[in-house]
Amino acid sequence: MRVFDSNWMQIADYLERDDRVVLPVGSTEQHGYLSLGTDALLAERVSVEAAEPLGVPVLPVLPFGMAPYFTAYPGTMSLRMSTYIEVVRDLLDCLAGQGFRRIAVINGHGGNAPVAGLIREWINRPGADRVQVLFHSWYNAPKTAAAASRFDEDQYHGSWLENFAWTRVAGVEIPGGAAPVIDRAKAGNLTAEEMRAQSPDGSLGGAYQRSDEDMQLVWDAGVAEVRELLEKGWLDQ
Amino acid sequence: MRVFDSNWMQIADYLERDDRVVLPVGSTEQHGYLSLGTDALLAERVSVEAAEPLGVPVLPVLPFGMAPYFTAYPGTMSLRMSTYIEVVRDLLDCLAGQGFRRIAVINGHGGNAPVAGLIREWINRPGADRVQVLFHSWYNAPKTAAAASRFDEDQYHGSWLENFAWTRVAGVEIPGGAAPVIDRAKAGNLTAEEMRAQSPDGSLGGAYQRSDEDMQLVWDAGVAEVRELLEKGWLDQ
Amino acid sequence: MRVFDSNWMQIADYLERDDRVVLPVGSTEQHGYLSLGTDALLAERVSVEAAEPLGVPVLPVLPFGMAPYFTAYPGTMSLRMSTYIEVVRDLLDCLAGQGFRRIAVINGHGGNAPVAGLIREWINRPGADRVQVLFHSWYNAPKTAAAASRFDEDQYHGSWLENFAWTRVAGVEIPGGAAPVIDRAKAGNLTAEEMRAQSPDGSLGGAYQRSDEDMQLVWDAGVAEVRELLEKGWLDQ
Amino acid sequence: MRVFDSNWMQIADYLERDDRVVLPVGSTEQHGYLSLGTDALLAERVSVEAAEPLGVPVLPVLPFGMAPYFTAYPGTMSLRMSTYIEVVRDLLDCLAGQGFRRIAVINGHGGNAPVAGLIREWINRPGADRVQVLFHSWYNAPKTAAAASRFDEDQYHGSWLENFAWTRVAGVEIPGGAAPVIDRAKAGNLTAEEMRAQSPDGSLGGAYQRSDEDMQLVWDAGVAEVRELLEKGWLDQ
Amino acid sequence: MRVFDSNWMQIADYLERDDRVVLPVGSTEQHGYLSLGTDALLAERVSVEAAEPLGVPVLPVLPFGMAPYFTAYPGTMSLRMSTYIEVVRDLLDCLAGQGFRRIAVINGHGGNAPVAGLIREWINRPGADRVQVLFHSWYNAPKTAAAASRFDEDQYHGSWLENFAWTRVAGVEIPGGAAPVIDRAKAGNLTAEEMRAQSPDGSLGGAYQRSDEDMQLVWDAGVAEVRELLEKGWLDQ
Amino acid sequence: MRVFDSNWMQIADYLERDDRVVLPVGSTEQHGYLSLGTDALLAERVSVEAAEPLGVPVLPVLPFGMAPYFTAYPGTMSLRMSTYIEVVRDLLDCLAGQGFRRIAVINGHGGNAPVAGLIREWINRPGADRVQVLFHSWYNAPKTAAAASRFDEDQYHGSWLENFAWTRVAGVEIPGGAAPVIDRAKAGNLTAEEMRAQSPDGSLGGAYQRSDEDMQLVWDAGVAEVRELLEKGWLDQ
């Protein structure tokens, strides 16, 4: 249930019988030949598909995240960390104030991972109601990663692993073959300009595409893992 | 051209020939019987339709805004002002850093209006490239407001003026008749709880709906006015 | 009753019988030929005159506001928005902590208007006593604006409308005639340097002066409207 | 020259020949039987009298400072330190941006002293023009303190030392005798509530008043010392 | 070379010939039977031993980190994320301003990992000199983890892996046996109170101790891996 | 009792019988020929020696403080004031949350003194348990200063007064004689670059050294004064 396909009365009704909610968080950033919205589109879509049979509401994806190392590729938006943690704090505060007690933050972008630290801090905010918050990066969660690794161990930004029918750009032909792999150990130390120089098309390595059949298997694993989280990932209380 | 329907190379190409961009900003908040996403959906849609023939890229809507007075209606998200101005600052900084020089912020929510102050501050940030930024609240801009006023002077939150085919919620019947009008002079002083008590369904007054034909005329005026802004709203330099 | 003409014991006594207070907020900024303190002087004076017969205490005016677009005119001071909202928050917190329950912020400067958003947020701060806060820009409130419009529809920064005996500068001759009108739609997009280039004397348009008799009528309307607000502008509870 | 008695053109002219400016900072806080504005009134007045013969402009006093320990006395306003340092930073930035190169912050309130740390930080802000900033607490500067000590070594908040014709409140009779002295070593550890309990009238100790002749001598010393600072307190460069 | 065993002239000399520096970051937090300073002591010690033969200076450890989930165990100190990122930013700014161009942040505490995001942001700060920053969590870096895994795959907070002669507390007997393992997937969702209830002694699982010989092998691997980083972990430029 | 020589259980036990704790705060900054850690080393050492016989726990020294005026001397680290006050706030919050009710902040660096303002604000934070906090700059507290003044009234940064066996750097010869005294009244207005130009070795004036016997007398006075504070410096309640 997308929150944007609902009105407030429906959410109020839902809160009479359940207290779970999903907040997808993504990024607007270069993904090589793929959509600038890849991380946001996937986080939202995997959330919606996972939550659908459970009737859990899914907020609109937070489309902007932390991607300072990609800002030399036009179209990339990056929030400072000091900004990003306040956005997530505010959203958690609103949800808690309305009675949500189990919040799943479904993340589609590696650069957002530090916000998990803020979430742990938030859970311990003084004098507040007990609210559980899960932070789940869907694309490299154990079962999804295992599903992908059956095809290819190389799983890099902007490569086949993010190349779905719903992240491709109309009219753009994806290259065959594979991009050279950027040294991960050193990538964290590159400026955005250096990153663009090292990866002229934005792919950080590996094959550009796989068959839709293969991709569907990866996707199904991702959806199933998020759904399992929404069903069984909470603390018993 | 939606940024999410593009890859970064396409944006890079665009920047060779133009320097305009649109950032729609909305809100996730109660709209009575209508979608919780009304302000975000309309800001993004009016932006996309206006920009389409001009080829100007449109960022994904920032779906969360400032709506503290509606937080007692479940599903409403509100960022603190201190957070919101930093989000907008970061996005403007990214755009400026990539070569955009004319940015139109198309706003769909009255509560976001204070960010216009931040924009005026940002334009004057020290030591930076000259970047123009327009802040345009599409729904009450002069020509759009005039188009709406031909039908009804009562134009309130959650009423007919926001009731489009694309903001209604599937399966929800909209009442006929009109909601009682909340005293605007005093509404600013209401807490969220008091607001909900005064407006049990979230509509702040006036008729709930008009014909699709009437609404299309309002909508067309809104799109035309944003398009005119994108074409002629800039300072000559 | 100016707070600066009182000691704390008098304020403590007052709080035994009433819970209203006035916080005037102004700006230190260029006003063409008029005093750099125009907005502060007027906000404080209109507050003091309005509150006098009611016995409501008036704080000293906050003399600095948000005026980034005028900083190229020497003597203009501008606080960043992130600073300004914290100043107002702190003052509201102090007043609330001492038992004030109805606070009127009387504003003399258009650039301060965004703080109304902070006030709406503050009213909804969690876990706090219910405190009403009115934000009133005295110079363009309905009745005052109507009184001024009987004389001249052109009411711009630095023009006749702000030219009172108490905002003129000793020894400065005010020009006759009128300044050319700056295009309001585009003024919001000007940098401070551009603003100064477009308005060499700082007046944004219209006649520089009117007779003291005319001005007194405008002033009386302003005082009366603030007084009415202090008497009847509150929510019944 | 009060900035509020000037227009911007006069300040622009001044900057052609001089680059000094005075920013008085005070507090709105209990002062026993004396005005809640004592620290602000004195800081502004000593600045204006000192600067007058030199033609140096004096900004309006920043009337709100840091006084958390007095907030239990109604009428006391206190800014958080995080707020206060940003206000002062913004004002310094504005002045520097307009060409002022020697700024004297004349302080009237002990609780504001920590801002001297911010000033030292600001002087070292990266990449900026060299601007000198003096922070001078006029009331306990060496020569002024010496002048006062000739009369009485007890110089406490709310006592004779702050009791001038221009800080007394009309119609309020000041007690004869002396208030008991609060232990200074422990006063820093008192909450506002405890402070009020220990000092029921707000005076922290010592005689309540001296003759106007004595006070004039103290005052003259204060004015002279500020003037000397404005003339000779700067680094040679 | 500990910075605290040097004076500034020695650091100035060093900068004539090298531009590397080490900043150890730790935490003051419960470690079961072990010292509350375990993470700080180890981060500093591994840095000093690794840097010694290279002559690279090592700053004093930042002893406080982010550990909100352990605050129910007395003696645990935790900085908010908003604070912590500013501390690290300031330290990086100072180092960059003095000519350091290769900074290794050696981390001893898992909860500090989010600061890696700030570092990536900082590397891309606008208009600044190019400075490389490595963030290295020494205790689970590949070679150190491999060395430890030869002994035991269970490597949890407060267990054998942190139990060195230099993290034990004088006079405290460490239990034999092993603590029950806390479910890692769910641990992130525990409040500090729940954490203490689930782990009454603070160990999150596994054996409490191993022989000093085994521990020395782990330690040697940690030191060697940090040293290799300081020698070869940088980008060629 | 150093906290780093304890585990959490020992601190928990301590809290059953006492509620005092010591937080030493220092600085990493140039001290002429002496250790860059002088202020941190002394603050921690004086705390540990003073607290030892009382059994009061001493946290690890916060080694970084505010020293913007020394940043031109390599090895000096300086936190912005906005950062520093948040660090201290967080530490106080943690201590208060765990039951400490009497906190002594023992300061070793003049530039940190503004944090006393934050502490007074913190004591008055709303809605919190009553916690006493003393801020004590050990090196110029009355009795310690008196002990030093018996030897020499000149007591400046980087001179004899900070020259102990435990702040000297191995292998560094300290000059005989005395450094010229920097004008204190003007020193506050110097940039870091100017400071370094005026004080080429970093000593701000006076003799470089005295005999160990003299220094021990000063040190003993410092330890005794801190101990007296820990025993008798609190408010009776």
Comma- or semicolon-separated keywords:
two-stranded antiparallel sheet; Rossmann fold; Creatininase-like_sf (chains A, B, C, D, E, F); mainly alpha; hydrolase activity, acting on carbon-nitrogen (but not peptide) bonds, in linear amides (chains A, B, C, D, E, F); 8 helices; Creatinine amidohydrolase (chains A, B, C, D, E, F); 3-stranded parallel beta sheet; metal ion binding (chains A, B, C, D, E, F); homohexamer; 237 residues
Average pLDDT confidence of chain A is: 96
Strand order of the largest sheet of chain A: 1-2-3
Please give the oligomerization state of what you see. Answer: homohexamer
CATH-scheme architecture of chain A: 3-Layer(aba) Sandwich
Strand content of chain A: 5-15%
Sketch the topology of chain A as an H/E string, one letter per element.
HEHHEHEHEHHEH
Name the CATH superfamily assignment of chain A.
Creatininase
The top level CATH class name of chain A: Alpha Beta
Based on CA atoms alone, the radius of gyration of chain A comes out at 18 Å
Strand tally of chain A, please? Answer: 5
CATH third-level topology of chain A:
Rossmann fold
How many H/I helical runs of chain A?
8
What is the total number of structural domains of chain A? 1
